[in-house]
Automatic annotation (TrEMBL):
Residues 135-147 have a biased composition (Acidic residues). The keyword Metal-binding does not apply. The keyword Nucleus applies. It is found in: Nucleus. This is CDC45 cell division cycle 45 homolog (S. cerevisiae). GO terms for molecular function: chromatin binding; DNA replication origin binding; single-stranded DNA binding. One of its GO terms (biological process) is DNA replication initiation.
Amino acid sequence: MFITDIRKEFYDVVVNQRVALLVSSDIDALCACKILQALFHCDQVQYTLVPVTGWQDLGTAFLEHKEQFRCFVLINCGANVDLLETLQPEEDSIFFICDTHRPVDVVNVYNDTQVKLMIKQDDDLGVPSYDDIFRDEEEEGGDDSGNESDGGSEPSGKRRRYDEGEVERRIERQRAMREWEARRREILFDYEQYEYHGTSAAMVIFELAWVLTKDTKDMLWWAIIGLTDQWVHDKITHMKYVTDIATLQRHVSRHNHRNEDEDNSLSIDCMRISFEYDLRLALYQHWSLFESICNSSYTSCNFKLWSMHGQKKLQEFLADMGLPLKQVKQKFNSMDMSVKENLREVIEESSNKYGMKDIRIQTFGVHFGFKNHFLASDVVHATAALLESTEKDDSPGDNFIKALDCLSRSNLERLHGGIDLAKKKLMAIQQTVASCICTNLILSQGPFLYCYLLEGTPDVKLFSKPMALTLLCQYLLKMFVYGILRCSCLSLLPLIIAAPMDVEKRTVIVLGIPPESETSDKKNFFGRAFEKAAEGTSSRTLHDHFDTSIIELKMEDRTKFLDALITLLS
């Protein structure tokens, strides 16, 4: 059931309960969790935080906590499956779900008692009407029994005519039932065919804080990071991003206006959020400009930096800007102030000459005191790198806590550590993309492009993680489409990438993304396609990820699984 009044139907209910907070391992969910934690601390709500990485984790977490808790809050998980069927809870358990995954399962939508959906109604949900997909038992059963017990006292001719009429009515009912079921299957197929994402969970929870008049600048910054995560990982359309940016900009203006007269507005530990029209260069304020240009997908794809011609073009671009190499190759903080003053305008002017008309993007930045300045995308990259860190043998739970910590402004050291990890990750992605293109690892399989990372590939362990593999996949497709196949019909194809996941279990992680185009609606059909291909070939797959377009597959079944996909999508 959709919640219409989030304060009355959600917060007023949980504020007097002990709450189990089950949070998915993605940046938007972490940000929503931080906002909700801050609200719970305000009102002294008792809660237990449990990170979950997939459906198995969610089932285990529920089994461990179902005796102690009646209220469960699920962030970025649980909406796109029949939750009651999956978890089999007691009748007094209530699930509050704040999830960006679409489509929302119809049973969750029409369950009035146990499932409460904290989902924005202005998203284009397209939920089928109740009568189209559910029938009451009386309707199904009909009056099939007839009235045969009374028939003994009637003349046989009259009874026969009555029976014939009853048979005709029964046949008519069965025909109508078959037609309704066929129509139902068609409606559900159309509704569930594509996977996509709705409004950021952090934004939904921030709006709750605003309604409660308990919103702070920290909460607003977390909501901004949640939205930016959706943009960085290409989950929403550009139009959706710009619309949500405008909503957050109004909140930023309100907070900045509210704090203008406060004495601490210029203190050493103040926090100032600003709307910025900044460069699409990853981490450039914490790196050198040269490294950032080389390792950002937007510039790297446009220059074709895997080739000698691309490297030469980059040198020409730097010369056109009139920036000395010495300045460009040193850390951004160490560049001359005279160079930094109008750097954005200089880069934008030269970028337009080289066909990069979208080098600047609407975003937000934050100042902590006088020294620390971060863009929202910097924090997204840093948090993602900590969340999927492979440097130490930390458990996913440990990485989750570190990533959660780096979002607090009291923990800037951890954030800077995350930025260093993110630089290594972006360099690994760039090198892998160049390697895949130079060795022709991307193959056309007919209805889609396919790339398989071999076991000996450098940094292959990093790409066993979903977010890192997603970034690589998007980067590869952009590079292939805009750099190599600018006018080819292959440029309209989606991409499937597979990478070794667990060498001992001999499994690979398989991920599919929709075709790359400026008008793409970001709707992904691979979730359903993977299910059908696995069923049709009895491939040993594990559909454990909350994104249905990411699965685990046994290495031995890879060939037959791919063959089935080609047949299915041709």
